[in-house]
UniProtKB/TrEMBL annotation:
Protein name: Uncharacterized protein
Protein's organism: Tateyamaria omphalii
Pfam families: DUF6502
Length: 283
């Protein structure tokens, strides 16, 4: 009986997983990734996650244990281990650093005038400068390295008189394909990580809420979307200012560090004729 219940639960989650994978597979096909390529990547991720999250008494897992947990052949596990870790973690840390620098530039009092990011010199003795901006975020990274990354991404430009200008339109705009993929990985990855923790934990640890309606006319959703964009932008700007102030206050404090990401999204599509509201909130 227990085995039958386990099989039924697995089948039910496979249906859930199929729905989650559909938009991701659409993206992979659009990017030219075929199934065999993704199979290889999936095996690597299975091995990495097993090693990171399923240790026993915090001891490294044996290849046999990883094979038992993941179904990946031990020969493939040895090959994956020999290749070493990928650069995903490093890429995400770099993206987080650049985002924090931009956030400081857009919110810290010494770097804005009337709510607008100032033009900054690279270095200055008697005024706010780019080097001070970067050092306020991370003292272990060279400001020139950060500047090169921001300029290569089109987020910062240099004026004729040598001042650095934050391209606010690029920051909030569509960006390049590389930028969109970086935000896709970070935003969807963190949302999925939060949802996973909420699903697996007895008490959901992360805030996760949504409002949803079906069978609304398009102009009604236009109205909702306009209101959502305005209110969400205000919330994000408020939290950015608060986080920037807290970051400056904790710059020299001892102790552990954490990161956070709060994201807001809205998705809309045509409703099927049989769609009904799952649960409409009380007015």
């Amino acid at each position: 009986m227990a085995r039958r219940e386990q099989t039924s639960a697995s089948d039910a989650f496979m249906r859930v997983l199929r729905g989650l994978l559909r938009p991701l597979v659409r993206t992979m096909i659009a990017r030219g990734l075929t199934a065999p390529v993704v199979y290889g990547l999936l095996k690597r991720v299975y091995v990495e996650v097993a090693e990171e999250s399923f240790r026993l008494d915090d001891k490294p897992l044996t290849d046999s244990r990883i094979a038992l947990l993941t179904g990946v052949h031990r020969k493939d596990i040895r090959t994956i281990k020999a290749e070493g870790p990928d650069e995903t973690g490093q890429s995400r840390r770099k993206s987080a650093l650049l985002a924090t620098v931009i956030g400081q530039w857009m919110s810290a009092p010494e770097f804005i005038t009337d709510g607008t990011p100032r033009l900054l010199p690279r270095q200055a003795d008697d005024a706010a400068d780019f080097e001070t901006l970067v050092r306020s975020v991370n003292r272990d990274v060279r400001p020139r390295t950060v500047l090169d990354e921001l300029m290569n991404a089109g987020l910062v430009s240099e004026t004729a008189d040598g001042l650095l200008e934050l391209q606010t339109e690029a920051v909030v705009g569509t960006g390049s394909a590389r930028d969109k993929e970086a935000f896709f990985a970070a935003n969807v990855g963190d949302h999925l990580a939060a949802a996973t923790e909420n699903l697996l934990a007895d008490t959901p640890p992360f805030f996760e809420r949504a409002v949803f309606y079906n069978q609304l006319p398009p102009d009604a959703i236009d109205e909702v979307e306009a209101a959502a964009r305005a209110k969400a932008q205000e919330l994000l700007e408020d939290l950015n200012r608060q986080s920037s102030a807290l970051h400056r206050a904790a710059q020299d404090a001892e102790g552990p560090r954490q990161r956070y990401r709060l994201g807001i999204y809205l998705y809309r599509e045509d409703a099927a004729a049989a769609d009904t509201d799952e649960k409409a909130p009380d007015p």
